Amino acid sequence: MKMATEQEALDLLARVGVNYRRVDHPAIWTMNDPNTPKGLPEVKNLLLKDKKSDQFYLYLVGDHRVDFKSLTDQLGLGHSRLEFASEKELESVLGVVSGMVTPLALVHDKDNQVKVLINRALQEIPQISAHPNVNTATILLSYPDLVKVLAAMGKVPVIID
């Protein structure tokens, strides 16, 4: 698969017509990276999968821990076990590597195999942060604009607690 590019992320935002602010910074690989600029909204972006190879993109407020048991219950997965997607799966499904997972890479999910899950708390923060397919910049946008971007990719998020 072709790797996701910054230009395609910026083109998507322009095509959808959302307002955003860009913050350039040194590469950020994890939420606790010392290069993280102060004041950015802390969010987590995770690509998860279950035993049947269902894939889930989970977007949540950074200080929330993922309760996998509760999440499988909310998704009606029964006794399935959720786990993190491998580096190879990140590349083949979204065209990104760890540290660059972003909702803007969902445009690469051409086969519509990834279900989008959004933590309800994201609706309550004034701005949401997302990498533009690179981890040396952060895009700040509103929750309604995020939903517009997802809709333009054919994604309807499932809101989870």
Key descriptive features of the protein:
161 residues; alpha/beta; YbaK protein; three-stranded antiparallel sheet; 4 helices; 22% helix; 23% strand; globular
Task: Kindly describe this structure.
The protein is an alpha/beta fold. It has a single domain (6-160), classed as YbaK protein. Helices cover 22% and strands 23% of the residues. The longest helix is centred in the N-terminal third of the chain and has 11 residues, at 6-16. The mean pLDDT is 88. One of its GO terms (molecular function) is aminoacyl-tRNA ligase activity. Pfam families: tRNA_edit. This is Prolyl-tRNA synthetase.
Kindly estimate the percentage of residues that lie in beta strands according to DSSP.
Answer: 15-25%
For the largest beta sheet, what order do the strands appear in spatially? 4-2-3-5-8
The appropriate CATH architecture is: Alpha-Beta Complex
What are the low-pLDDT stretches, counting only 5+ consecutive residues below 50?
none
What structural class do the secondary elements suggest?
Answer: alpha/beta
CATH superfamily: YbaK/aminoacyl-tRNA synthetase-associated domain
Output the number of helix runs: 4
State the helical fraction.
10-25%
